[in-house]
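Lab channel / #folding
Pinned by the channel admin:
"Please post every new chain as: sequence first, then the structure tokens as a reply. Keep commentary short and put observations after the output so the thread stays searchable."

First post following the new format, from NK:
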Amino acid sequence: MTPDRSLHTRAVLMLVFTTFLWGASFPLVKAIALAHLQVLPASGTWFITAYTVAPRFLIGTVVLLLVLGGKLHTFTRLELKQGALVGLTLGAGMLFQNDGLQFTSASTSAFLTQIYSVMIPLWLAWRLRRRPPGVVLLCCVLVLPGIAVLGRFDFRTLHLGRGEVETLVSAVFFMMQIFVLARKEFAANRALPVTLVMFVTAAVLFSGMALATAPTPADVLVPWTSGAWLGLTGLLTLFCTLGAFTLMIKWQPKITATEAGLIYCVEPVFTAMMALFLPALFSAWGGFDYPNEQLTWHLLVGGGLITFANVLIQLKPLPKPA
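Reply from TO:
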């Protein structure tokens, strides 16, 4: 195997593992929200959203500061720029995704998030001023009923639930994040400096939001008194934040944005599998009611249509814009 081919294979495997870690984040986030409500029942959904995200990036920032130590002065302008852009796009995506998770299932959220895989070639076609190829239009035809089935779309009122709508909005920002990571000007950037700047950006954004939405300022300390909340937040931070995002930033630039979109199609499959047993484990640990999900026809048909469309569209990628 040539060095370039070997590097490509390693990048693919690392990103598949990244999707496994992200897959676990969906039931983890729902469990953290339930643990939060146990100790602060008066919390609004936006405070819960902000305080599900802020601690993972605050802790991640502290860890990376300890790791990088005296290397902060070596950060380049492009590393600072990329880290800030990724932090802003990621932060916006997670804002809507995590709030939406409070109104839909972990599996539905994971499948709907993957809509950005279809958005990528549509965006490229628009940038290239070309009519979308037939395969793109076919995938759109597959995705739309998939969204309707998963979101229990009401054809009488033309209405999707809040959780499903917010998840679709989050997909737009996650698509933007993929393109930021794929920009050639950032090819020489190092993974850890970019990750640290991204963490700092997200931590500042969500910490400010948490303080603004907390019932009282003192309430930001209350969740830290819950053993279940601390344990779940620790798992989310270690595996789904520090581990997953460091791997993503290091390995995604080694492959194309379209290839990355294809690999990320695996994420909701991992989520659907883990949602069959993780909720009961989290409930037993935290003492809240979070039942395991079931393999319903909505999940199988809707998720299957979206996953098939994502895979199909990535197998015939559009050329990159100049």
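NK: Residues 318-322 have pLDDT under 50 and may be disordered.
TO: also worth noting, Residues 3-315 form one domain.
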